[in-house]
Automatic annotation (TrEMBL):
Spans annotated as Disordered: 224-245
Record's protein name: Proteasome assembly chaperone family protein
Matching InterPro entries: Proteasome_assmbl_chaperone_2 (IPR019151), PSMG2_sf (IPR038389)
Species of provenance: Halogeometricum limi
Gene3D superfamilies for this protein: PAC-like subunit
Length: 245
């Protein structure tokens, strides 16, 4: 039975929730992990949803097992982070969206979904833009985030979650950043944190450590990125839809 099992009593009021499912460049994963570490966030809940791989996760120096997909909370910043240690198969994405949908409405969460847009290798700063459903467009305007310059779509698990938001007219924002399609991209994660998550969630996040540890992060996340590339499953990504090609 699908459920979200709350583990800790944390007082939150209509919080923002940053989604960090693995996708192109592992942008969401890197950003989510950085937020959890930087704010020393509390392990708030385990997700037991249909479609999540039935595996148990343990961490260094801790005997406690947990679900591979978890929620972390920070009362001070009124923030939630959805962290995942495993990729979610596209065929399971709708089940995950259904599992989270009722909880979103019950807790008045404003989800911020993250996705990478594959680009060729470049030294330029990755470009970021935002899309939205419900009243999310107002949040995007107030945050001063760029809008898309062309038509496109977001696929994979994040696309399914955004589709669910559109279907239920739920307020949600999707952040799309240019990222490396082959390797973990800490620079894209830095941009999505500073130019997207910060103004939307009203927080200030130090990314000095993220930039300094870029190579270490790439190496640590490369195995997950390789598994996603080698698999048949489609990961979260944004892509342009050009009508005349």
């Amino acid at each position: 039975m699908a459920q979200i099992r709350i583990l800790d009593d944390v007082s939150l009021s209509e919080p923002a929730m940053v989604e960090g499912l693995p996708g192109i460049g592992l942008v969401g994963k890197i950003a989510a992990d950085h937020l959890v570490e930087t704010f020393d966030m509390v392990h708030y809940a385990n997700l037991h949803c249909d479609g999540i791989p039935k595996v148990a996760v343990y961490h260094e120096g801790d005997a406690s097992l947990s679900s591979p997909v978890r929620l972390y909370a920070d009362e001070e910043h009124n923030l939630l982070v959805l962290q995942s240690d495993v990729p979610i198969a596209p065929k399971a994405a709708a089940e995950l969206a259904t599992c989270l949908s009722e909880w979103f409405d019950e807790t008045a969460v404003t989800p911020i979904f993250l996705s990478g847009l594959p680009r060729e290798k470049s030294d330029d700063v990755p470009h970021l833009y935002a899309v939205a459903s419900g009243d999310g467009a107002t949040l995007v305007t107030e945050a001063g985030i760029d809008l898309p310059s062309e038509m496109g779509l977001i696929s994979g698990p994040t696309g399914a979650l955004l589709n669910d938001a559109v279907e239920h007219d739920r307020t949600a924002v999707g952040l799309v950043v240019e990222s490396d399609p082959q390797f973990p991209d800490p620079e894209a994660a830095r941009v999505i944190i500073k130019s997207g998550i910060e103004p939307l969630a009203g927080i200030d996040v130090s990314v000095d450590n993220l930039v300094e540890r870029a190579e270490e992060i790439r190496n640590a996340k490369e195995q997950l990125a390789r598994r996603m590339q080698e698999g048949d499953e489609e990961s979260t990504q944004a892509q342009p839809l050009r009508m005349y090609q």
